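Hey team,

Sharing the DNA-binding transcriptional regulator, ArsR family run so nobody has to redo it. Sequence (117 residues) first:
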Amino acid sequence: MDNARAIEAFAALSQATRLETFRLLVRHEPEGLPAGEVARLLDVPHNTLSTHLGVLSRAGLVVSRRQSRSVIYRANLECMRETVSFLVRDCCAGHPGLCEPLLQELQPCCPSQEENQ
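Structure output:
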């Protein structure tokens, strides 16, 4: 990821409705949500949400697929991973202990299957 792509991603997330939309889609991974359902859950007019989804899509943060007459939107977690990695790539400057608290914070909220056994 380069500076321009990172700036585009952060610019897309720097608006409240788009940030809420992205976070909602993250919570509904991997199934995603139809655009109409996103609009309903966030209480946003459909045409307004369409504009916000377009910005998120151009930034690479959401992907969509047509399912019958609906368009299903999903968070592009790979793009978010790249964005976060871009931010912290040089965090420790050769001192791994400095990054440990950050890495602990970035651990997934759900335990892996290996941890459950």
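The radius of gyration is 16 Å.

Ping me if you want the raw files.
A.
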